[in-house]
Design a protein that fits this description.
Blueprint: H1 6-20, E1 24-25, H2 34-50, E2 71-77, E3 82-86, H3 92-95, E4 100-111, E5 116-127, H4 135-146, H5 151-160, H6 167-179, E6 188-190, E7 194-198, H7 200-205, E8 212-214
Parallel strand pairs: 2-4
Antiparallel strand pairs: 1-5, 3-7, 4-5, 5-8, 6-7
Helix pairs in contact: 4-5, 5-6
């Protein structure tokens, strides 16, 4: 079997989304738990891929679903398109998560007549690693830098945004930013013990901005 590549992954995601959107699933009938729906979908997609490709499947220890490709899969409802991910460093909000995201956004409907559910996959979006930072954080920092901002301005902005960092790290990040502007990210990342990722912007911007690819 061929090795799985990012391009194969995108192609298979598009095909799988089309098939799943017309599939009636009895085990999901009456299920409102987004985690249960996501687990069902992810396991089914992984099983499909394993039948065609050689690749390393991720685990909770590895942190992401496709560690060899640097890609994590997210499955979320259109009602509230968001999910959580592990917090590693406050820098992720400025420089990105460190890996790309393959996002499936579904709308679930139940059919009482035959006691099945259907997941209509409305969007499949691939966000490149470089674009997985926080939108307001990266646009704000770039605005300061483009307006002749200095180190104090950058530190003050990060403090106002309550970026969870100590003074020494804030100073180091400011120095790094003065050397090189951050790329604009398109996620909304909320501070928490785990990052809370929100996807409405990538749904809106997919195909219209660099690094946010609309697959379906």
């Amino acid at each position: 079997m061929p090795d799985l590549t990012v391009e194969f992954l995108k192609s298979e995601a598009k095909t799988f989304a089309g098939i799943e959107s017309s599939h009636d699933e009895p085990t999901l009938f009456g299920v409102d738990n987004g985690k249960t729906v996501g687990t069902y979908f992810e396991h089914k997609f992984q099983a499909c891929l394993h039948g065609k490709y050689e690749y390393e499947e991720g685990s909770s220890a590895k942190g992401i679903d496709f560690p060899g490709l640097g890609v994590d899969m997210k499955v979320t409802s259109i009602k509230q398109p968001q999910s959580s991910c592990p917090y590693k460093s406050a820098r992720q909000k400025i420089y990105g998560l460190g890996y790309s995201l393959l996002i499936f956004v579904y709308e679930k409907t139940d059919n009482p007549e035959n006691s099945t559910a259907r997941l209509d996959i409305l969007h499949v979006i691939f966000v490149e690693a470089a674009r997985t930072a926080d939108f307001q954080m990266t646009t704000g920092l770039n605005s300061i830098l483009n307006n002749d901002g200095n180190k104090d301005d950058l530190i003050a902005f990060m403090s106002d945004k309550m970026l969870p960092i100590e003074e020494i790290e804030a100073s180091q990040i400011a120095d790094d930013l003065l050397e090189k502007h951050p790329q604009i990210g398109y996620l909304t990342i909320s501070n928490a013990l785990q990052w809370r990722l929100q996807y409405q912007r990538v749904i809106d911007k997919a195909g219209a901005v660099p690094g946010v690819v609309r697959i379906k």
